[in-house]
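Re: G4F structure - here you go.
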Amino acid sequence: MKTALVTGVTGQDGSYLVELLLSKGYEVHGTKRRSSSFNTSRLEDISRELGHRPDNLVLHYADLADSASITNLVRDIRPDEIYNLGAQSHVAVSFAVPEYTADVTGVSTIRLLEAIRASGVPTRFYQASSSEMFGSTPPPQNESTPFHPRSPYGVAKVYSYWATVNYREAYGIHASNGILFNHESHRRGETFVTRKISRAVARIAEGFQSELVLGNLDAVRDWGYAPEYVEAMWLMLQQETADDYVIATGEAHSVREFAQAAFARVNLDWEKFVRTDARYERPSEVDALIGDASKARRVLGWKPQTSFVELVNRMVDEDVQSVRDEKAGKLVRIDI
Ligand code: NAP
Ligand code: G4F
């Protein structure tokens, strides 16, 4: 049985990756932060039937800002694979907490890589790199495109990217960067634009909300479906040689188009409900991210399956169902 350590297991990607690894027979160890309320809701699907957490999923309290907790986990678990998904992952928030973002999204990667190096365990390492690193470099972006980050988050991810490359070159660690373009689902954090839109559409359609306030509607993103993207992470660590890969759909849409499609799903005209406010704009914006994932297709055999319209419809449908369940008092939270 293989053992994996996943940081950021309570996040969108962490939850899908846990499901994938458990389905492949792994023993999975995940880190979670101490919180004053339940923060494991995204892991409820795998626990619901049992009524408790599966035996081969172990959760540990840890913080990426705390070297000791990271080093101890690597030494004690001696994992075959580490997936570093934990991060302060919100671009707009990184302008408000730049130093914290540099530490948790940037320097923490060195904490993990050093723990691997010092332990001598032959662990394979996945770094959650981001298309935000390309920033203002025009699309299409691939593995050879120069980085020009436009936020403290993007800068921190560039640091982590190069730390991963450096530990691969310096110490021969099997360390890979997945340069993932935006990927979404009904488990996406509620303050990222797609989920903000799908939730608002559901609440407006069900009569709980009257308007949706957004920032820059012209921004263009390459949005894929998150469960397919965690499959690519796993594939990278199954390769004989570590390497860096862009994961994307290659299809581009603006925030405006996302809103239009989401409101159309519930037969509403988006222009009647959406207004913009500068408070949701960023000091420096990334105008357009469109990925070229041909290397991943060629080497990993990975390709996206879900179209833009399918993604939008799925997210809106799930949120409409959640609002209805909430209305009917059907939502039961369990702590795992
Ligand atoms: P997410 O939903 O925001 O999850 C982030 C995870 O990191 C959560 O489990 C969070 O814990 C944890 N975390 C935050 N601060 C931490 C700290 N100080 N110590 C330990 N854990 C901490 O992000 P995601 O969408 O799943 O993305 C996963 C990773 O991929 C992130 O590194 C992100 O930057 C990167 N990425 C995401 C995308 C995308 O489109 N989703 C694209 C490219 C790269 P809490 O639940 O307690 O907050
Ligand atoms: O959904 P967003 O906040 O995602 P963003 O900034 O692209 O970052 C996400 O994808 C990255 C990969 O490229 C990840 F690395 C990162 O961790 C995160 O998952 O914003 C998307 C676009 C931006 O241009 C933003 O300015 O939507 C625009 N936008 C317009 N109105 C808004 C809003 N974004 C948010 N969050 N909220 C708004 O009201």
